[in-house]
User: Fold this.
Amino acid sequence: MVALARKTLLYEWRRFLPAMVAIGFAGLLQLLQAGLVLGIFGSASVYITGSSADLWVGYPGTQSVNLGRAVNADLAMLLHMDPAVAQVEPFYWVDADWRGPRGTGGESVFVSGIDPRADALMFSRTLAPDLRALLREPDAVVIDRADIDKLGVRVGDTATINGQRVRVVGVGSGLRALGGVNVVSSLDTARELDTDPADDGRPTYLVARLHDPARADAVARRLRGHGGYGPYQVWTARDFSRRSVLYWMLDTGAGAGVLFLAGIVFVVGAVITSQTLMGAVAGSVREYATLNALGVGVGKLRWVVLEQAFWVSALGLLGATVLGVAIIALARSQDVPVVLDIPITLACIVLALGLAAISGLVAMRSLRRADPATLLR
Amino acid sequence: MNGHPRAAEPAGRPVLVADRVSKAFTSGRVRTQVLDGLSLGIEPAELTLISGPSGCGKSTLLAILSGLQRVDQGRVTALGSDLGQLDLRALEQFRLHHTGFVFQGFNLFPALSALEQVELPLDYLGLTRPQARERAVQSLDEVGLGHRMHLRPSELSGGEKQRVAIARALAKRPDVLFADEPTSSLDAANGQMVIDILHRIARAHGTTVLCVSHDPRLIRHADRVLAMEDGRILSDTRPPDPAAAPEGSAT
Assistant:
């Protein structure tokens, strides 16, 4: 088969360039938007995704990690009694007020009290063992490197949280919070910093690791509804993380905004692409008409246009990938939270291909002018 | 004589038959009757020329006889098929398997080489790659472009482009070859070459060539000349001695 679509595309690439750029940018915009939104709202569940716990036990109805209330510490016993559970530890989440040494004023911080041992579950993915070890000192805290300026401290400085003195012993990364600043401390330090009398030294969550993480759903189900431990609920890490991210997305209206923007990007891209393809078809309409006169069916000619649309989008996406990788690398180096995973990337590619297909279908209409009778004069 | 015995009378059954066909075009409120009850038969394996001034309806007649346009009244039979009975898809199939077209504008794809232009319709004909390649090369050789088959239209002269277009039509091995003003945009020498090729196709392949033109140079080369005016055939003549204009001679 003579590759009419591809050869025309290569030979007249200037004609097709606007469509390639349009599809490429549409794909890239969707991807970066999705990456940013997921990155930003993913910070809502950084406590979950940065840890290796499979189950989370907290106050019933908690919609997002940052909205937890204290639960009965004896729940640890319940967890330990289940044979599927390998490891249990408490997690303190304290909403607190930070005052830095350089007069930065009050700053709302979220203190995460964790077990600082090297093999503990909380923040096992974001805090290296040496950094965790530093938390064993009394009143020691670790902050994210992106928050240094906001908190007005350097490593070794002292500050006050809820009126009590703390010392910054290190900086980590991947600890950025949504709507505040994360500060990590040991369990003991966090208990001291918690001034809410209602908490009474009780943990906000209990987290557990299972021997077989694949059974998390079943184990979570059978751990629910035991009496004698006060109000509590058990979630799998996956569910709780999704719950937290969705809460933020829907609560802030960001989800609707993202969909709206995605729709606009799609429409603009489709208009530019279909116009370009229509121009290309119109430019060759006499040749198409000649092929039709020679008996090549209109259906076959439509395929040529669709194939052209496909190649245009493939080349556009290739360019967008190169650009996208560069942009994401830049964003990561600047601590901008961008999260991209395979499903999201695939979804964006499918969207861009859909855009190309729709543009191709629209462009097919200009084939109607390829009536061979008009070639006779 | 060039060795071909020439029948004094039309041989065999007509390949194309128009039976009292009428065709009118409406533009706004103006209705123009282009063909009115015209009847005609085109004989096989010869070059028939329809000549006449512009607007006389000769291109419309070509469009109707080739199945590109439908008649308002009457009947068109091509190779035994009643074209009026065929739907759009069947008409396309009919054209694919039986007809070739050469237009005044060469209508070549700018991105394709001469060889690819000729191969393209063959692919849709269902030929294998090597078959298509072989036929395309053969046809380009026949129109004298064997040595230039890898060039794109932008690298070919007008005459060469028209020869590529002829090769494209010829490679399908059509029963009927339609040519619409094939020499109008060519100079004398190239026009002459194109006429010779068309004539040779009729003789060598037994192809029925129906050519529409107002170019007087063609008349001497045609086996049969139909003069048209105002949608009617004025005269139907056979030039007495086609050998008087041997192939390759200039006008």
Q: What stands out?
A: Residues 188-205 of chain B form the longest helix (18 residues). The CA atoms of residues 75 and 102 of chain B lie 24 Å apart. Strands of chain B lie at 16-27, 30-42, 47-51, 73-78, 81-82, 99-102, 176-180, 208-213, 224-229, 232-237. The domain at 43-72+87-244 of chain B is CATH 3.40.50.300 (Rossmann fold).
